[in-house]
């Protein structure tokens, strides 16, 4: 249909009406920018006030949550470290045909959980030393088993075999073990210059028998307070890759014929140089992940003349926390003091030492004769280890 043409005035009127209607509509639908800003400020103030109330009213809860989160991160770091070691083990088994892992696989059905496994390094000729330890700081018989069961503290004298297996020396250890049941027999030929190999094998063996948080090596001529050792190690339980002991940096002895002569002295620089920092050999502890590392990589771990230097070298290039624990090397009366007061003075003050010995002898001088006196003067008390919180 065709209508009459619309006039220009009518069209102009309709346009003005539509414009006014549109302005009115949009004004009702949208708020001004200033009102948006005011709303945002009000919301921000409310949020700040709310947070202030939370912080002021529940600060204790917040700190507790932060502490829990920190501990969780530490535990996660340790778990990741363990998984990394297991991955390395898997790769190593493919390269070497699985030999380093056979011992683990064979004993998985009987592996025992523990807090710490302590290996006391001993020799065929050291029966009197062992007896002096049994009569002082090491529980005997059923008490040794109870300590293992109730506290997860495993203690064994570690020893290998003679050059001829089944010799009179080996039989004497068999008889002693049948009486006391406190030996760990290693597939190792005993010899003074084989201590690095023995230490390497010790860690490889104990990780296949006990799943522990820590593994400790002790000499058989020092005094140890097991309770203090356990409580000290417990402080570092959540940390990954820890290496604990009295750290030192002694001279590299290049002169032939002297005790502790280092045949490979040239590797440590010019004559007169010192070793890198490492724990003294009388007593040290490493965490599970580091013991696994040694067990996995034992075929390519180089052995130096001194066993404590060898261990320090194995761990030097790793992300390892070196913990210098001076209570592990207290002096014994009337021995010469080293760094701090001796074990007797500290015991009287309530600061019982973890381990005590004479530095001039690298152990307790005449330990068989003096062990009882030192235990009486510096011991923590027979019941201390049973009351320690792990």
TrEMBL record:
Example GO molecular function: galactosyltransferase activity
Cofactor(s) the protein requires to work: Mn(2+)
Chief place of localization: Golgi
Cell compartments where the protein resides: Golgi apparatus membrane
GO cellular component terms listed in the entry, alphabetical order: Golgi membrane
Top EC class of this enzyme: transferase
Keywords: Glycosyltransferase, Golgi apparatus, Manganese, Membrane, Signal-anchor, Transferase, Transmembrane, Transmembrane helix
Pathway: Protein modification; protein glycosylation
Domain annotation DUF4094: ranges: 7-92
InterPro entries documented for this protein: DUF4094, Glyco_trans_31
Family matches, as Pfam families: DUF4094, Galactosyl_T
Protein EC: 2.4.1.-
Membrane topology summary: Single-pass type II membrane protein
Entry similarity comment: Belongs to the glycosyltransferase 31 family.
Protein name listed in UniProt: Hexosyltransferase
Gene: LOC101506450
